Amino acid sequence: MTSQIQGKYFGTGSPLFRLYLKTAILTILTLGIYRFWAKTRIRKYIWSATSGDGDSFEYSGTGLEKFLGFLVAIVILAIYLGLFQLLLAFIGISIIPENESEAAIAAQAVAINLSILAVLPLILFAQYRARRYKMARSRWRGIRFGMEKGAWGYAFRALGYIFLTIITLGLLNPLATFRLEKYMADRSWYGDARFEQMGRWQDLYAGMKHVFIGLGIIVVGVILGIATEGVWIAAAAGIIGYIWLLIGLIYYRVYAFNYLTQNKVLDGEVQFDARLETGAVIGIFLVGTIVIGVLMAVVFGIIGLIVASMSGAIMAGTLSPVLFVGLAIPYALAFLIAGGLSLVMITQPMIKHAVENMTVLNADHLDTIRQRAADTGADAEGFADALDVGGAI
What is the DSSP string of 48-90? Predict the structure, then answer.
């Protein structure tokens, strides 16, 4: 083995697109049940297309364990949310208002927000469990990755950091980013070797510069607009600042990923380097979104013209069920195609860019790492699937 390993990604669009369409159609035919097997098959393809030093990654998860984990999570969620709704009813707050008075509508808004807050700890819990499951089912060179238990610890810490970020108007977001990643990284393993997140959270502020610039443009524009009574100044500054802010958030995500990766250490010896580029990430997203948008506009435009030509029959209620189904099928297929195009034109290129800009340093030390015991305690992303968390590959 060389002392340095460069990541490689060999996946291509056509086979992944065919796999997506095949599994998506099976998911529809099984009323959504096959989606657990669909995600598993897509992950197996992407893992096997990712390699280092000529060895591809392996994904050993199964659709059955994901399905069973989902069923368990649904039961627990139903009990939890049911008890929470009983609590709301006990204190006199209902999701469904009894009348249309302002007080009833306000109470409904409070109930909905409280319900969302009640689910937030479970969402954070699910994020950790989903990452732990993927680690436990991933192997490279025959050696398993793994992650220690700690989902509730992560959830409670994340809640605290979210609160700090909100009350400081985002100023402590780098602290939240660093500490939460460190919590997960320090509990992660490759074989019998432990990862450790090094570095300082203050170093992430360099990645926030464009966020601050975007916010600054908005604030200065509003102040100048008020001072000069120039609405156009505030409007222009708002548009420019908003776009700059969005780009700044992407820049921060990329910067943070690079920094955190460059400051991870495995077994005290193996280091990593990541050189993702913000321009490339934005370019992949924009090109993919534009192409998909244009194609879908054409497809839906054609479907819309066909439906418009039959508007008389639709209004009169004389449209035959067969013809109605015939119109619904291409509409559903268009959404399937859009999902497949998003996977092969946005998700896969993003993965390729990340993998091929990743380098493992001091890789000779990997030869000393030995196998770890299978982690049977990692659940199969049941809560993540139930809450639609971590649905990406």
Answer: HTEEETTEEEEE---HHHHHHHHHHHHHHHHHHHHHHHHHHHH
Neighbours of 168 (CB within 10 A): 12
Question: Are the beta carbons of 194 and 267 closer than 8 angstroms?
Answer: yes
Show Cβ contacts of residue 51 under 8 Å, excluding neighbours closer than 6 positions.
7, 8, 9, 10, 57
Please give the pLDDT value at position 113: 64
User: DSSP string covering 353-368, please?
Assistant: HHHHTEEEESGGGGGG
Rounded Cα distance, 77 and 83, in Å: 10
378 DSSP assignment: -
With vertex at residue 172, the alpha carbon angle to CA 169 and CA 173, rounded to the nearest 5 degrees, is 90
d(CA 157, CA 182): 12
Burial letters 276-308, b for 16+ CB under 10 A, else e: bebeebeebeeebeeebeeeeeebbeeeeeeee
The answer to whether the CB of 385 falls within 8 A of the CB of 126 is: no
Question: How far is residue 372's CA from residue 322's CA, in Å, rounded to a whole number?
Answer: 57
- Alpha-carbon distance of 381 to 134, in angstroms, equals 8
The residues near 353 (Cβ < 8 Å, ≥ 6 apart) are: 276, 277, 280, 281, 284
pTM given for the model: 0.85
Among the listed residues 62, 59, 57, 108, the one whose alpha carbon sits nearest the alpha carbon of residue 85: 108
* Model confidence pLDDT, tens digit, residues 187-238: 999 999 999 999 999 999 999 999 999 999 988 888 887 777 777 778 888 8
Separation of alpha carbons 184 and 148, rounded Å: 9
Q: How large is the C-alpha radius of gyration of the chain? A: 25
Two tokens, residue 359 = 């380098």
